[in-house]
Amino acid sequence: MWDYTDKVKDHFINPRNVGVVENPDGIGEVGSLSCGDALKLTFKLGEDNKISDAKFQTFGCASAIASSSALTEMIKGLTLEKAAEITNEDIAQYLGGLPKEKMHCSVMGRDALEKAIAYYNGKTVKAKEGKIVCECFGVTDLEIERAVKENNLKTVEDVTDYVKAGGGCGNCHDQIEEIISAVRGTPIAEKPKHVNLSNIQKIRLVEETLEREVKPALRQDGGDIELVDFDNNTVFVKLRGTCSTCAASQGTLKHYVEKKIRELVSPDLIVEEVQQ
């Protein structure tokens, strides 16, 4: 589905430093199983006060595993001051680049490193500051502001790629646009007017979108998708093949399938998976 570099594939297939460091000096945990990605990073300092060992445990997609693996390699031999300078862009560049839809995986690594260093310094890792904007993924306004500033993000889709906000129900899109506008000092773009479609027209366009845009991409990874039903602007689908057992299937459903259908059919559509 996504065009991964050889280095991303290598760190996914042959991840380095998997596990937990014994008696770690630093521990950083981010994400949650409920949103599809979670990472635990641990490190140990040597006598020279440089990171002598670093390990990770990750639940997530290929990019999440590769980013975590790369991060552990990058921080070994560094002082904490130097390690703290590593950005999510550095992690992506180390891997030869990440698909923009997967940049949130590098952000997760950066966040875990920050928490691990804070743990070592004896700082209490506070609960998330700011106001929750994206209820689906628990992302705050301050997290969105930081992502926009550091990565020069310009659209809601950009924000979703970096911090997942806006990748669920879509109710927070207006708030995200307001944050982008405030940070960048630009007016909110006028929303395009969409033609009102009948249910029959929507169903036909959904079928065409799945056949032309979605199925070929899923089949490249051994997966597939089937349209099951359509009711009240909700598209019910069934994932097949490798997609049906993939841990990152919900991310694929929301960040790829739903995004394509909203873009090419109607922005008010929601995609839901029919369970067995």
Descriptive keywords:
alpha+beta, GMP Synthetase, Chain A, domain 3, three-stranded antiparallel sheet, Sufe protein. Chain: A, 8 strands, 276 residues, Arc Repressor Mutant, subunit A, three-stranded mixed sheet
Describe the model.
The protein is α+β, with helices and mostly antiparallel strands and 276 residues long. The protein folds into three domains: 6-120, Sufe protein. Chain: A (Alpha-Beta Complex), CATH 3.90.1010; 132-184, BFD-like [2Fe-2S]-binding domain (Arc Repressor Mutant, subunit A, Orthogonal Bundle); 199-273, 2-Layer Sandwich (GMP Synthetase, Chain A, domain 3). 43% of the residues lie in helices and 18% in strands. It is built from ten helices and eight strands. Strand 6 and strand 7 (234-241) form a beta hairpin. The longest helix is centred in the last third of the chain and has 22 residues, at 199-220. The chain is globular, with a radius of gyration of 20 Å. The mean pLDDT is 87.
